[in-house]
Amino acid sequence: MVTHVSAEAHGDERGALLSFLDEQRGGIRRAVLGLTDEQAASRPSASELSLAGLVKHVAEIEQGWIARAKKEAPAVHRDESNWHECFQLVGDETLESQLAYWEKVAAETEAFIRAVPSLDDTFLLEKTSWNPKDEWLSMRWLCLHLIRETARHAGHADIIRESLDGKTAFELVALEQGTSWS
């Protein structure tokens, strides 16, 4: 835990879930602090992952899951032919544009989760190449999945950033807060 997530108001499960999701988003956002587009797009480890690619991926994934829960199509259709593009900037995409898009997605996620009548409400996730069967998922499951997905990539972002310039998550928290880590 690099930052502290305050306890939820008594009985505010939605607020708690959304706070933990936002805390994990913060880890990824901090990982790109002060970087140029070139640095953010670089791949300093054995992995094909870059920080810019991670930002794009988590924004796309979050938007896609919320769209499915709303019974809408995701904004971007991904399959085996274009999956690799969700981890890299293409065309005129920039780190700044992806961060702005993710901010919009995060606001839509919060509004949607706060508006659903119950976290027990479900939506159908249809069978796909990555999902072996039709299944009904709760809004609670959706929140937990988004936290897990974002946290996994926040860990990747920590490693990539430290590989770029040696800055650790604690140093980036201090940089974001305008203090020093000692």
Computed structural class:
mainly alpha
Give, in order, the helices and strands: HHHHEEHH
Q: Looking at the structure, what is the overall shape?
A: globular
The overall average pLDDT, rounded, is 92
| Strand segment tally | 2
Cα distance spanning the termini: 17 Å
Strand content: under 5%
Spatial strand sequence of the major β-sheet = 1-2
Query: Which spans of ≥5 residues are poorly predicted at pLDDT below 50?
Result: none
Total helical segments: 6
Task: Report the C-alpha radius of gyration, rounded.
Answer: 17 Å
Structure description:
The protein is mainly α. The protein is 55% helix and 4% strand. The chain is built from 6 helices and 2 strands. The protein has helices at residues 13-31, 37-41, 51-69, 95-115, 139-165, 169-177; strands spanning 122-125, 135-138. Strands 1-2 form a two-stranded antiparallel ribbon. The two termini are 17 Å apart. The model has no long low-confidence stretch (mean pLDDT 92).
Helix-strand layout with pairing:
Elements: H1 13-31, H2 37-41, H3 51-69, H4 95-115, E1 122-125, E2 135-138, H5 139-165, H6 169-177
Helix pairs in contact: 1-4, 1-5, 3-4, 3-5
